[in-house]
Design a protein that fits this description.
Shape: globular
Structural class: alpha+beta
Helix content: 25-40%
Number of helices: 8
Number of strands: 13
Distance between the termini: 62 Å
Radius of gyration: 20 Å
Largest sheet: 8 strands, mixed
Strand content: 25-35%
């Protein structure tokens, strides 16, 4: 029973704090296919304090002082380099604080973008430390969240980005409003967890972009995702439409999100970019 309660609380806590994440990822690509990954993650400092208290209460050995929880854990960030693919190395990391928020900035380098894998699931970026031994992260993330790259050298060089989007008809319908009241209630609970979440994903080309089918190009930067869930919740008409339609294709998603100020989501898949020195 103790293990069951522990697992139940961990799942609830995991969903709660991953829904409060502000995560920004930038992939910088050089003309030779090498580059860097920069991740910046923030969370409300009050939430971090709650997690720290939970971490202390879950300490397995009450005779020893529990290690203080911190979003910035350099050892874990170094170990995470393997999740990005082969020949990826940890470069630097630092704890950062800003206006009642705290988190970290971390940089990794890679030799060949062809070998790069980016998992954009926020649950992949946080560890509950001694509370979960990594089990929660393994269960909550998967290959369906991966962004992968193809690089073709030349001048211009070409980058092809394959996004983890489901094809029309493959999206989950289990939480539509036409389903049971219990499913509808579950959808509301999930969306409440996500209301403070911010996720952004950028690709920066170290050169001049000469051609691309990307929807959001600003100089040498491509925006694949810039999603502030609070903007969705402020727009009750769009929120109701999202719940009612339970979008089953990219076109339906695009129709719902296109008029929400500040929301950017790339629907071209794959995204192709040509750039030169």
């Amino acid at each position: 029973m103790k293990n069951f309660i522990r697992s139940f609380l961990l799942i609830g806590l995991f969903l709660f704090f991953t829904g409060c994440i502000d995560l920004q990822t930038t992939v910088n690509i050089n003309p030779d296919g090498s580059g860097t990954i920069e991740e910046v993650l923030f969370m409300n400092s009050a939430i971090v304090e709650i997690i720290s208290q939970f971490a202390t209460s879950f300490s397995d050995d009450s005779t020893q002082t529990a290690e203080e929880f911190s979003l910035f854990n350099e050892d874990e960030l170094k170990e995470r380099e393997a999740k990005f693919g082969t020949a990826v190395q940890y470069v630097s990391g630092e704890k950062i604080e800003e206006e009642g928020k705290e988190g970290y900035r971390v940089v990794y380098s890679f030799v060949n973008v062809n070998d790069l894998i980016i998992n954009q699931n926020p649950g992949d970026k946080i560890s509950l430390g001694n509370m979960d031994d990594g089990d929660m992260n393994e269960e909550e993330t998967g290959s369906e969240d991966n962004i992968v790259f193809q690089f073709r050298p030349g001048n211009p060089a070409e980058v092809i980005i394959n996004m983890p989007y489901a094809e029309p008809g493959e999206m989950d319908t289990s939480m539509s409003d036409e389903s049971s009241g219990q499913d509808s209630s579950s959808l509301n609970q999930v969306m409440n967890f996500m209301k403070d979440m911010k996720i952004a994903f950028y690709v920066n080309l170290n050169g001049e972009i000469t051609e691309s089918n990307a929807s959001y190009v600003d100089g040498s930067k491509i925006t694949l995702l810039d999603f502030n869930f609070a903007d969705l919740f402020k727009n009750q008409e769009k929120l109701s439409l999202f719940k009612k339609k339970n979008p089953q294709s990219l076109d339906e998603l695009k129709e719902i999100f296109k008029d929400i100020p500040g929301m950017k989501m790339e629907f071209n898949n794959p995204v192709t970019i040509k750039f030169k020195d």
